Amino acid sequence: MCKALAAEPWPENAALYQQLKDEQILLSDNASSLAVQAFLQMCNLPVRVVCRANAEYMSPSGKVPFIHVGNQVVSELGPIVQFVKAKGHSLSDGLDEVQKAEMKAYMELVNNMLLTAELYLQWCDDVTVEEITHLRYGSPYPWPLNRILSYQKQWEIRRKMKAIGWAGKSLEQVLEDVDQCCQALSQRLGTQPYFFNKQCKGLTFQYRRLVPKIRPTELDALVFGHLFTILTTQLTSDELSEKVKNYSNLIAFCRRIEQQYFEGHDKDSSSSATSRSAKRSLLR
Amino acid sequence: RPRGPPFLAEATATLPRLQAYAKFSGAPLTVNAINNCWRAPKGEVPILISEDTVISQPAKILNFLRKQKYNADYELSAKQGADTLAYIALLEEKLLPALLHTFWVEAENYCSVTKPWFASRIPFPLSLYLPGKMSREALNRILLTRAGPPLYSLTEVEAQIYRDAKECLNLLSKRLGTSQFFFGNRPSTLDAFVFGFLAPLYKVCFPRVQLQEHLKQLPNLCRFCDDILSCYFRLAVSDGRQPS
């Protein structure tokens, strides 16, 4: 990244693009988008969420979400974290080398298990595909384009699943993998507020006195994005969300981040992370 | 169920990993070379045969060994168990594609080392067909999981996967530091997995060696492999073949 890029401050009109929230977006894309939104909130960088039916096609990597900042377009959490770091904002600077390695490993775990399980559920589980995915994915487009796009995407995802060995798995095995992943996350989190509890500059008022601030990292944003979405998305059955609900510290973690970074930040109707149709709020 | 890419990916790293795990946990394990892959129950190797039970797939084999009380992770805390899972995910995402490429896709390596070695261990006429199939599956897996915009050509994909693999090796080296094993003084599942990935890379003599050279610049990882080889396998590898 050149120095000129780093010198530009974060503009007021930065935008995050995703698919249409109520009719079109699927579980995995929703999770990815929420993770990026959480990360930017944690960095205190304002961004407005823009919903477009063709967000996937506008993205430089074909994946959502992507952000449009100044005249740069960056997609996916990894590159966005790098981009934000080049601008001088980082959540993981205070970590030592071993902690950074651990953080990267846990982020791969979430991508490897949770994201793949979400993709499996929405593209390889026949019931979910028929009742939810096919109806949502191409919904902004007229027939027969909606069906063609949906089948094309399904074929592409199924090829990938076959290549990594997930095509032969049953739904029960996939749910077991989700459980194993949640168990690992729960054990790593323990009773701490975030995954890494490095104290950073600044004080915050807690328990009637000033205490050092503890900040979350991009790992917290990623885990929140996926777990919150799983917990609050209505699917054909509750099996997936039940796996996460087994771990009370993970639910508390999601609630904490929701309260701290998303409550009271809903300025316009398109940026609320917690109001979605047919979805339940955690706080109820 | 037909043999597919999981078999391929596993074949490169699994046997050393399972043998290492067995040695760490004290399980008495005899390695028998199967000449005919078709004889394995679902065509998958390696398989574990214990009394009357037959198990395939490495994850299930590890679980079986654990249930039989051959548990190399007995002294690990819950957090360390979670760390194990995370690091294994890191290895599979960041290191495995480059490993597959080095063994099965890089033309000089494949033609001069991998194919003759592999073909010599399976019977004719499988030896004419199987190595080529595995090579194609490796390339397929790499392209399906890593190619895509903004990486458009194979060269760009290759550059990216080797960058990721080198970064992964650096992370492993930082995590290991000066310890003997990843969690203290006793080896565990994670050590077995890391050994399974690193040992073939470290010991096999390839013509094209960029990843191997990077590994050799990380002395603690080389020491880690050498320690396990000398303590648990008591072998000096001399002819560039995989330790068996």
TrEMBL record, chain A:
<keyword id="KW-0496">Mitochondrion</keyword>
<feature type="domain" description="Mitochondrial outer membrane transport complex Sam37/metaxin N-terminal">
    <location>
        <begin position="33"/>
        <end position="153"/>
    </location>
</feature>
<comment type="function">
    <text>Involved in transport of proteins into the mitochondrion.</text>
</comment>
<dbReference type="InterPro" id="IPR033468">
    <property type="entry name" value="Metaxin_GST"/>
</dbReference>
<dbReference type="Pfam" id="PF10568">
    <property type="entry name" value="Tom37"/>
</dbReference>
<comment type="similarity">
    <text>Belongs to the metaxin family.</text>
</comment>
<dbReference type="Pfam" id="PF17171">
    <property type="entry name" value="GST_C_6"/>
</dbReference>
<keyword id="KW-0813">Transport</keyword>
<dbReference type="GO" id="GO:0007005">
    <property type="term" value="P:mitochondrion organization"/>
</dbReference>
<keyword id="KW-0653">Protein transport</keyword>
<keyword id="KW-0007">Acetylation</keyword>
<dbReference type="InterPro" id="IPR019564">
    <property type="entry name" value="Sam37/metaxin_N"/>
</dbReference>
<dbReference type="GO" id="GO:0015031">
    <property type="term" value="P:protein transport"/>
</dbReference>
<dbReference type="GO" id="GO:0001401">
    <property type="term" value="C:SAM complex"/>
</dbReference>
<dbReference type="InterPro" id="IPR050931">
    <property type="entry name" value="Mito_Protein_Transport_Metaxin"/>
</dbReference>
<dbReference type="InterPro" id="IPR040079">
    <property type="entry name" value="Glutathione_S-Trfase"/>
</dbReference>
<protein>
    <recommendedName>
        <fullName>Metaxin-2</fullName>
    </recommendedName>
</protein>
<feature type="domain" description="Metaxin glutathione S-transferase">
    <location>
        <begin position="215"/>
        <end position="257"/>
    </location>
</feature>
<keyword id="KW-1000">Mitochondrion outer membrane</keyword>
<keyword id="KW-0472">Membrane</keyword>
<comment type="subunit">
    <text>Interacts with MTX1/metaxin-1. Associates with the mitochondrial contact site and cristae organizing system (MICOS) complex, composed of at least MICOS10/MIC10, CHCHD3/MIC19, CHCHD6/MIC25, APOOL/MIC27, IMMT/MIC60, APOO/MIC23/MIC26 and QIL1/MIC13. This complex was also known under the names MINOS or MitOS complex. The MICOS complex associates with mitochondrial outer membrane proteins SAMM50, MTX1 and MTX2 (together described as components of the mitochondrial outer membrane sorting assembly machinery (SAM) complex) and DNAJC11, mitochondrial inner membrane protein TMEM11 and with HSPA9.</text>
</comment>
<feature type="region of interest" description="Disordered">
    <location>
        <begin position="265"/>
        <end position="284"/>
    </location>
</feature>
Automatic annotation (TrEMBL), chain B:
<dbReference type="GO" id="GO:0007005">
    <property type="term" value="P:mitochondrion organization"/>
</dbReference>
<dbReference type="GO" id="GO:0015031">
    <property type="term" value="P:protein transport"/>
</dbReference>
<dbReference type="InterPro" id="IPR040079">
    <property type="entry name" value="Glutathione_S-Trfase"/>
</dbReference>
<comment type="similarity">
    <text>Belongs to the metaxin family.</text>
</comment>
<keyword id="KW-0653">Protein transport</keyword>
<keyword id="KW-0472">Membrane</keyword>
<keyword id="KW-1000">Mitochondrion outer membrane</keyword>
<dbReference type="GO" id="GO:0001401">
    <property type="term" value="C:SAM complex"/>
</dbReference>
<dbReference type="InterPro" id="IPR033468">
    <property type="entry name" value="Metaxin_GST"/>
</dbReference>
<dbReference type="InterPro" id="IPR017410">
    <property type="entry name" value="Metaxin1/3"/>
</dbReference>
<dbReference type="InterPro" id="IPR036282">
    <property type="entry name" value="Glutathione-S-Trfase_C_sf"/>
</dbReference>
<dbReference type="InterPro" id="IPR050931">
    <property type="entry name" value="Mito_Protein_Transport_Metaxin"/>
</dbReference>
<protein>
    <submittedName>
        <fullName>Metaxin 3</fullName>
    </submittedName>
</protein>
<feature type="domain" description="Metaxin glutathione S-transferase">
    <location>
        <begin position="165"/>
        <end position="228"/>
    </location>
</feature>
<dbReference type="Pfam" id="PF17171">
    <property type="entry name" value="GST_C_6"/>
</dbReference>
<feature type="domain" description="Mitochondrial outer membrane transport complex Sam37/metaxin N-terminal">
    <location>
        <begin position="18"/>
        <end position="134"/>
    </location>
</feature>
<keyword id="KW-0496">Mitochondrion</keyword>
<dbReference type="Pfam" id="PF10568">
    <property type="entry name" value="Tom37"/>
</dbReference>
<dbReference type="InterPro" id="IPR019564">
    <property type="entry name" value="Sam37/metaxin_N"/>
</dbReference>
<keyword id="KW-0813">Transport</keyword>
